[in-house]
Amino acid sequence: MVLAATVSWAQVVVENEEDQDDEITVTDDKGREEVIEFPEAMTYDLDSLLNLYMAKTYLDEASDCNMRDINPVYSREDYVNRLSRIPSVMEMAYNDVVQKFIDRYSGRLRHSVSYMLGASNFYMPIFEEALETYQLPLELKYLPVIESALNPNAVSRVGATGLWQFMLTTGRQYGLQINSLVDERRDPVKSSYAAAQYLRDLYKIFGDWNLVIAAYNCGPTNITKAIHRANGEKDYWQIYPYLPKETRGYVPAFIAANYIMTYYSLHNICPMTTRLPAQTDTIMVNRDVHMEQIAAVVGINTDLLKSLNPMYRRDVIPGHTAAMPLRLPLTELTTFIDREDSVYSYKTDELLTKRIEVEVNDDVPTYYHKSKRYARGKRGARYSRHHARYSKRHSASSRRRGHSTSKKRKSTRRRRR
């Protein structure tokens, strides 16, 4: 099945929509069916997103929004025109597959879009700064919308983590520290700069932004294979049939995300109102410190502290290994500096229990000697029985041959002299 960027499909249907929330079945004008998977973030439960600390603390339902659950119906021409007017370097082509993803965002996921519009006030400035640093199209800032639904703690079925859904190997390749205590894939700032570098490198390989986005989802190797199977075609919509199911929906989902984050008001979607958190700053710590030590001595909410420092997986900042960043609200940062010694000494024996040195108990238990003698006795008994059997067989054999074992031993002693 081959798609052109402007192809018109006769029918796009969702079969058993109530049971299959993660895929759609597409039927073309020749009656051929194809299953397209939704990106995993499009299947997230809204309640889990609203349970994030930042959402609970700084986001509220809009109280002055009218008709929020009525989604107007527009013509095909309206959608084509709106996509063409988005100020973007990247191609925002329309077809009925893109339309299906727009319908998903403006319909069933409209409340999730409301959350993401509110949460974008936290994250979009970070994304834009990272993209601008590497001179990349700013419309890529909506990639985390389909990657993680703007959830910094998101973990996919295959282990991709954070706002930008880095796999472990790729994250390390782009300088993100990942170990038992630290996972910088969860850090909005560091992961955004790593993602910008990765996107830049993918563009150097493919030179086409649609292929870059697809490669971000399934890896450059799969895109190269699809290009080969399509006889060298380097148009996303031409290699479309040769892509993994989820990747077939990835570019349409990205276009739909750009559409809905731009034209949400035309679909009666209201952003959640946002109260921006207090201004923050970072200080480097060079000793191991537990989050509870900081929270108790500095007087800061533990959940707020964790939300500002999501890269620490076990509530411990391993500053003894290397100087590590600690992000705090400006007011609490001064308090931390003034009380730093008190922070490090607070409940250290209870919260930081990993020992640096230990003494070995050199008292030898009595059962060890008994066990050793018993084992030695068993080995001795086995040796004695084996030696006795060997001697008996050897003596009998010697007698049959007419030899005397005693004489043989004597002659042996003589030769040794």
What does this protein structure show overall?
The protein is mostly helical and 417 residues long. The protein contains 20 helices and nine strands. Strands 1-2-3 form a three-stranded antiparallel β-sheet. A two-stranded antiparallel ribbon has the order 4-5. A hairpin with a 5-residue loop joins strand 2 (23-27) and strand 3. Helix 9 (209-218) crosses helix 10. The longest helix has 35 residues, at 366-400. The protein is globular, with a radius of gyration of 34 Å.
Q: What's the structural blueprint in terms of helices and strands?
A:
Blueprint: E1 11-13, E2 23-27, E3 33-37, H1 46-50, H2 53-58, E4 59-60, H3 76-84, H4 96-106, H5 110-133, H6 143-148, H7 168-173, H8 188-206, H9 209-218, H10 220-229, H11 236-239, H12 245-248, H13 250-263, E5 273-274, E6 280-285, E7 288-290, H14 291-299, H15 302-308, E8 316-318, E9 324-329, H16 330-338, H17 340-345, H18 348-351, H19 366-400, H20 405-416
Antiparallel strand pairs: 1-2, 2-3, 4-5, 6-9, 7-8
Structural class: mainly alpha
The tally of strands reads 9
Radius of gyration: 34 Å
Uncertain regions: pLDDT < 50 for 5+ in a row?
A: 1-20, 404-417
Summarize the structure.
With 417 residues, the chain is mostly helical.
Question: What are the salient characteristics of this protein?
Answer:
single chain, mainly alpha, disordered C terminus, three-stranded antiparallel sheet, disordered N terminus, 417 residues
